[in-house]
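Appendix B. Chain record.
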Amino acid sequence: MNTSRWNDLGKFLKAGKGHVANVSTAPGRELVAEDIGPSRRDVDQREERLFRALDDDNDDAVLARDLKGTLRDIGLLEDDQRLCESMAAITSALNPNPKTEEENRRINKSSFCLAIRHNILLIERALQGRMVVPDFAGFEQRMAGIFDRVRAENSGVPADYIPQLNVQGEEADRFGVALCTTDGQRASFGDARKFFTVQSTSKPITYALAVEEHGSRYVHEFVGHEPSGVGFNELTLNRDNQPHNPMINAGAIMTASLVGLTDKRRLIGGGEAQGGGLRGWSGRRFDHVLDRWKALCGNQEPRFSTSVFLSERETADRNFALAYFMRENGAFPDDVDMHDVLEFYLQCCSIEVNAEMMSVIAATFANGGICPVTGERVLQTDTVRNCLSLMSGCGMYDFSGEFAFTIGLPAKSGVSGAMMVVIPNVMGFCVWSPRLDALGNSVRGVAFCRELVRKFNFHNYDDLTGSSRRMNPRLNPIQVRAREVNEMIWAASKGDLGAIQDQLGRGAALNFGDYDLRTPLHLAAAENQSHVVRYFVDQAAAAGGNGNLSPRDRWGGTPLDDAYQHDNQAIVAILEKAGAERGKARSAVDVADCGGLTPASFESSKVDELIWAASLGDLIAIRRLVAQGVPLDLADYDRRTAIHLAAAEGHVDVVRYCIAHHVSCNPTDRWGNTPLDDAIRHDHQDVAELLRGHGGRARSARSPGG
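C-alpha cells predicted for this chain:
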C-alpha cells in the first residue's frame, strides 16, 4: 500500500479541504486515496475562469446562491438530474459550523471546483452563456407575455363526442404551456402540471416505436406518408390500399398493429403460443410503450386514464369501421388481431401526461432522439427525421397545410386540447387548452403558435435570406446589438466598403449608433477612410437629402469634428461640400499611454459584446464573458473599454466588478479621457468616489478635448 498517499488523504481531510461527497465513487465502493490525489485538487485554467466569473469581489470565495441563481436564470432547474451530484457537493462544501450567516453561504475555490467537476461541461456552458437560448430569462419573460395575451382567447368548445373529454366550466378554460430546449432549459406557465390524456399526440410516438422495431421501409409497406386531403377519421385508403399516413386514425391504428409484433411472432414461431406463451403479451407490450414514454419524458412517470379509455371504447364506432375496412382490403400484416389492435390504439390515446412532460418529449424530437434532461438516446435520428417530416405535413388534421404555411413547424395536436410543437435543434414545447376549433385543434394552441412565430424567427424559412427582423433567441440580445451596430462601425473604421454594403442589404441603417452614439460615419471620418465617407454622402444624396451627415455622439461631436481633430483634410472637404455641420470642436491629444489596455486582437464580437454589456449594466453577461476567458480590459475602435462605459452610465456594480478583477482605473480613450472623466461628466458621484478610492485619475472634468 502506498502509505504516503493515505497520509496525504488524511492531511487533506483533516484540514477541512475535502468532502467525501465531492468525490464520485462506484456504487458500493469505499473512497480510497486515489480518489483525492493532486489531479483532483488542482484547479485548471478553465475551472479558474468559471470560479472568477462568480467571484464578484475577487476574495477567493463565491456564494452558493450565486451559482444556483445563475443556473436557474439560464433555465436549469435545481432538481435537474444532470446536476444532482454537483448540487449535492455544493451543499456538502458549505461550512457546517459557520461563524456568520455570510460564511455559511461561501464556498472556497477548491471546494467549488471539486463540486462542479461532476457536471463540468454542462455547468461550464451554462456559466459561459453557451446554451441554445443564452438569454433564457429574457426569453422566458417574453414567452410569459405571449401566454398572457393568448389567455384572453376563449372561443371554441371541448370535444363532445368522447364524454370524458367534454369538460365544462373552469376545466374547459384550463391553459398550460411548457417548453424545454435541446440543452434542457425549462420553463412553464399556467396549468402546465395538470394531467391530460394525450389522444392523437400519441400518434408520432406510436409511429416512432413501430419504426424503431421494424425499420422505416417495412412500416411503410402498410402505411403511406402523404397528406390524405380528407378528414382525420375518413373511411378511405390510398391507391395501394394503405392508410394515407400515420397521423390520421387509420394510419395510427395500422402503426399500433406493428408495435410488439416481432415479439408476438417469436412466441408463435417458437410454439410458445400453444403453451400459453402469449398470455400476458398485451400487457408486456403496453408496459414497453409506457417505458418508452417515460424515457421520452425524462424519466417522469406517465399515467393512464381508465375512465377515458372506457369512454373512448364505448364511442369507437368510426375507429372500428376503419379497422374493418382495412381488414376487408387486406391492409393489416399477418398475425394481427384487429380487436386487440383497436384496444391497444385506444390505450395509447388514454395515456396521461402534463404539458411539462410533453415539452420534454417535443425537445427529445428536437434533439434528434436524445432526451435533453437525461442524455439518454431514446429514438434513432432517422426515426425522428421521418416522424418530423410527417408531422410537418399531416400533424394538424385538416389545418396541416395552413399550419405549415403560417407557422412552419412540425406539430401534432389532439382532441384533449394538447399540441406538441418541435423547433428542430432548438426546443420543443407543449400547449394544452381543451377548447377546440372546428377542425379539432386547440384554439389557444394555434393562437400561441401564431404569436410565437410573429415574435421570434422560428418559422423553418425565416432565415432563408438572413434578413428576418424577428428576434432570434439563439443569440443574446447584446450579441444582436453588437453585431448589427459594431460590425458596421468596425468595417467603416477599416475601410471595408463591401461589408458595409452587405450590412445595408440585410437591413442595417447608415446611422446606426453604438453605446456612445458613435456611427460608421464618425469612424470613417476619424480613420481617414475617404471612399467610405464619399459612399455615405452619396447615399444621403440618394435619400433626397434626408440622410443625416451630422449625427452627434455622446459628447456632441459630429463626423466633421472627427475629421478636423485628426487633420483629415480630404474628408473635411467632402463633408463640408455635402453640407455637414460641426458640433463640439475637439483638439487632438496625446493618447500614447493607454493605461495597460489589452489590444483588441481578441475576437472582435466579444469585444463589442463586453462593452455593450458594460454600457447596459448587464453583470450577468459580463460574468459569462469572463467565464469564457474574455479579458475585461479590451478596447474598441475608439479605445473605449468596459470600465469607461460602466462609469459613463453609472453602473457602480460593473465598475466594482472590473476593479476587483484588476482592471486599470486609468485607461485612456481616443480623446485621452479616463473612466473618472466619464463619471464626472455624467455626474455619477458614487462611481467617481469608487474610482478615486482605487487610484483613478481624471484628465479633466470637461468633455473630450473641451
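Further analysis of this model is presented in Appendix C.
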